Amino acid sequence: MPHRDLQPAAHTATAFPRYGTRTAARARRLTAVAALFAALAAVAVAAPGEVAAERADAMAAPYLPEPTGSHPVGTTSLHLNDDARADPWVPSAQTRELMVSLWYPASSPGTQRARYVSPVESELLLEGSGITGVPPDVLSRTRTNASTDAEPVGGRHRLPLVVLSPGFTWPRSSLSSLAEELASRGYVVAGIDHTYENHATTFPDGRVATCAACERTGTPDFEREVVESRARDVSFVLDELTAPQPDWAGAELIDPSRIAMAGMSLGGSSVGETMLTDPRVLAGVNLDGTMFKDLPESGMPGPLLLFGAAAVPEGDDSWTRNWPRLTGWKRMLVVNGAVHPSFTDYDMLTQQIGLDYGSDLEGTRSVDITRRYVRAFFDLHLRDRRQPLLDRQSARYPEVEFCGPDADRCR
């Protein structure tokens, strides 16, 4: 069983892939991303003298931008075990073991600021990404805006719930900026670590599970298996949060009739499957994720926002292919100048530590755009608040382009 205390994380899959629909396209993309990370690592290693000192200073305090809502943000973690299901990647584990972070509106700011990732998790994520020329604990220094000792606020069954599913090999913390924003606006947010699908998941007893699923990449139907497994993970987490006696005392705030999901990359790929298999999930956002499992020909009526980079890897036509099968509210928006990590914290954070992905979205711009459009979608579909931002081009966000009704103008 792959754990940090039993064996080293020696997987070669990059932490920041942009998955496509064809093996050749995927291989080209993974090669390109690996080359990018090699270049970044070489720059980091080669920086001499004052340049190295400047980079070290820049890496001293990466940070997440403050959320824009009126509520302070609290956070906690849950350790959940699905005894009814063997782990799909490590069957000897017998049960599916998950770590879940919850972000929520708080009555007042706490005093204990939440950690972004642990030093070990930072090291494993950078190691899995091929970056060795930066301090291995640099991501653990990231300043968050949530407190671990803040009390939840809100009436019983009054707050909508949003589930977040990260990209393959990425931890749940990669979507922290989005989670903090939604929580500050009165949402409960549940971010799931899909165990053995990322470079590091730490359990309360100190075990660190590594990426067993990385050994399966490239095998037939791998992505489809991930999509289906993640849908089951989400349903299990919803079962636990809405149970009569949930593990989290604040779960009574959740309105079980207002649940939605957003996923990034492979997490985004899983949104449609989750909505189809679990009717509790009313609406979804796919953040730059190839739709590996096509929607049924009969269609999917639930609201879906496709929100991704304008540049699409060769061979990835999954959004346009599935567009006619979205029979309800739908939008396809693309962000010019974005790269795959722009829909997580990582485009912003890598700029803060002196690395360049090639994104044209400087500073916190990638996070600002993602938070604003995703929040608008959930405000519309979970709170019934009209959102002109989702109906027309915005002068405030000129990077965001609406695709035409035939869905072939942008991607």
Condensed summary:
Helices cover 28% and strands 19% of the residues. The chain is an alpha/beta fold.
Description of the structure:
The chain has nine helices and 13 strands. By secondary structure, the protein is of the alpha/beta class. It has one domain (23-402): 3-Layer(aba) Sandwich (Rossmann fold). It has an eleven-stranded mixed beta sheet with strand order 3-4-1-2-6-5-9-10-11-12-13, sandwiched between helices. Strands 7-8 form a two-stranded antiparallel ribbon. Helix 4 (176-184) packs across helix 9 (365-383) and helix 5 crosses helix 6. The model is unreliable at 3-53 (pLDDT under 50).
The CATH topology assignment is: Rossmann fold
> Shape from CA axes?
globular
CATH 4th-level superfamily:
Alpha/Beta hydrolase fold, catalytic domain
User: Treating each run of at least 4 consecutive H or I residues as one helix, how many helices?
Assistant: 9
Question: Going across the major beta sheet, what is the strand order?
Answer: 3-4-1-2-6-5-9-10-11-12-13
CATH top level is Alpha Beta
Helix fraction by DSSP (H/I, runs of at least 4): 25-40%
Low-confidence stretches: 3-53
Whole-angstrom Rg: 20 Å
Features:
single chain; 411 residues; alpha/beta; Rossmann fold; eleven-stranded mixed sheet; two-stranded antiparallel sheet; 9 helices; 13 strands; 19% strand; disordered N terminus
Give the secondary structure arrangement, pairings included.
Layout: H1 23-46, H2 49-58, E1 73-82, E2 96-105, E3 113-115, H3 119-128, E4 143-147, E5 159-165, H4 176-184, E6 188-193, E7 201-202, E8 208-209, H5 222-241, E9 254-264, H6 266-277, E10 281-287, E11 304-309, H7 318-322, E12 330-335, H8 346-352, H9 365-383, E13 400-402
Parallel strand pairs: 1-4, 5-6, 5-9, 9-10, 10-11, 11-12
Antiparallel strand pairs: 1-2, 2-6, 3-4, 7-8, 12-13
Helix pairs in contact: 4-9, 5-6
